[in-house]
Amino acid sequence: MELSQKTIILGVTGGIAAYKSAYLVRLLTQAGATVHVVMTRAAQDFVGKTTFQALSGHPVLTDTIGNDHDTMEHIHLTRQADAIIIAPATANTIANLANGQAHDLLSAMCLAKGKCPLLIAPAMNHEMWSHPATQRNIQTLKQDGCQIFGPNSGVQACGENGPGRMLEPEELLAEIIAFFQPKYLSQKHVLITAGPTQEPIDPVRVISNLSSGQMGYALARAAKESGAKVTLISGPTALPQPYGVERINVHTAKQMYEAVMKAVDECDIFISVAAVADWYIKNYRSEKIKKSNQKIGLDLEFGENPDILASVAQLPHPPYCVGFAAETNDLFEHAQAKLTRKKIPMIIANLSQDAMNLPHTDVWVLTENEKIHLHPGPKLAVARNLINIIAEHYYQSLRSQA
Ligand code: CTP
Q1: Hey, which end of the chain has fewer CB within 10 Å, N or C?
Q2: Any one Gene Ontology biological process term (predicted)?
């Protein structure tokens, strides 16, 4: 329940994307938010009030005049709200907001909102979006402190193609959740490896491990939420790409090594979460090995893969490096040994039976002279705490270098 205790005002204006906002209400309420919907007259030509009323569980507000329960609704509601999100926000709405117009309840609320943050999800034809007047209005709104979410580019309701599509409801939910997270890493670039690697034996067989990638993906999301630019280099997983994160897919440890080395110069922090295969198969067969040609078992020769984390830590100007140690026994001895051997300032230690392929985890943060036990829980919650701790130590390391 990532939005429990949050009250959100959803403003719906007159665009075809209004139908998607009905699903946004469902997602927001499922995330624990209390949602009050305000519709403009034009919005009601696209979707009926009843839909939003049923989904939000609250009466839909439509106008200042004739509102029988509270004539000061535009003031009172914004005082209780944690944010106003306008989705979809038409070009006309954006122009009105940029100019401080108060034609109807929604625009009056935006003018009377006080400190309540205003989040805007534009939706319009690409020519309208690119028009200098709209771009000017968007700049004005940004200067006024509004957050602009999107728009996406793609095929539009009119059949044309270009920027102006409203973000999908799931993407808007991710933006709204991220909006409430502290921005520990704004302007920073975080590089993360995640998931298992696969070492091919023949065209249909690989050696791999049980890593699901969940912790690396949770850290990618948490880093993105905290304001960082995030590059995720991922071995094969079944997980969806975290919203707003650049993902580079690889299979083998060597591919992961090359992708990391290509990206590492631009990054400030490197978090090595991947369960990298230690060995590759030297005698890879280009044709499928037939059972009938083998004695019992396969005659495999192994070569050592590069240690990606240790290689990054040895660069002349390394980013702040964080490793992971998943152990079955003697957790602290093994983790501490890896910290020293790989010459890194921080390692996250966990027992593989408490974390691997599971949705929750239980971790310790080890540095040269600290051992911090984090509150165990879902991987995203733990990842958010970890990002906070990593950011603190990263800034400390910058200060000590200065
Ligand atoms: N790691 C890496 N490249 C490798 C092996 C490991 O970047 N070839 C990183 C992992 O992403 C992790 C840390 O090193 O952050 C520790 O990985 P782990 O597999 O636990 O340690 P190893 O060094 O492989 O040692 P061992 O397998 O003996 O436990």
Answers
A1: C
A2: pantothenate catabolic process
